[in-house]
Amino acid sequence: MRVAVAGVGAMGLAMAGHLIDKGHEVAVYDVDSARAREAEACGAQAAASLEKLAGLADLFIVVVATDDQSREVTRTLAEHAAKGALIAVAATNHPRTMQELAAFCAERGQRFIDAPVVYGATGAKEGTLLSLCGGAEADVDYARPALTAYSRAVLYVGPVGAGQLAKTCNNLLHWVHCVANYEALLIAKRFGIDAQRMREVLLECPGANGTLRRWDTTKFTWQEKDMDVAMDLAQEAGLMLPLAGQVDQLIKRLRPEDVKALLYGPEARYLGVTVTPLAPEEGGLGA
Question: Do residues 50 and 78 lie in contact, with contact meaning Cβ atoms separated by under 8 Å?
């Protein structure tokens, strides 16, 4: 299949590499020409512009950072690609943005699906992402051979925007788990029990979650954007989500270095307060 990847940053470059390894004919474009050359060195054809990229594929995978970037890339591709080409947005965006872009593509004779991924940079590197797809089921099936190149599975969720809705639900759970994991391990640390050891114990318990399992690699990069989408959808739907509202505020205060200190440092900080382990004579359980 002739596949183009628009955006070959850390995620897109790895995804393009898996597509090449699986025998697809791959073209790429990135505003950073060094990234495009890196992909070219792996066997991809680098296009000088999005307009040029539009003539090099039948399936386009958009791997950018923001809704506005997805709009710009998708609209440019839709205006220059052959009729019937399929554009798949693998970026994490608002479901309404997907509906907007699907309508734009349809007016120009293009097909469109949203296919955001989960399992992050590690999944991209290993080719074990999970693609969550929204759009016409036939269009998802058309794209499936390419999406499968970098995915452990390609799941059809529903109409356009449903893939992004699934990603939002996953993101909400992820950030809820981040806060809950931190608070649970903070209790352990306060009572003098090594937080990393408690994490290992909890991974064997019913309360374990995928976020806790990958705790060391959580980057805290997109929590504000992810929670903004979740809260916007809740407001649109007239839903009261008090837990999500609290997490929306709390997650903005956590950083990777906070998790590192909690797991491996002598003390931790939470909501501006330094937490040190209690000595046994103070009520701690540690030796």
Answer: no
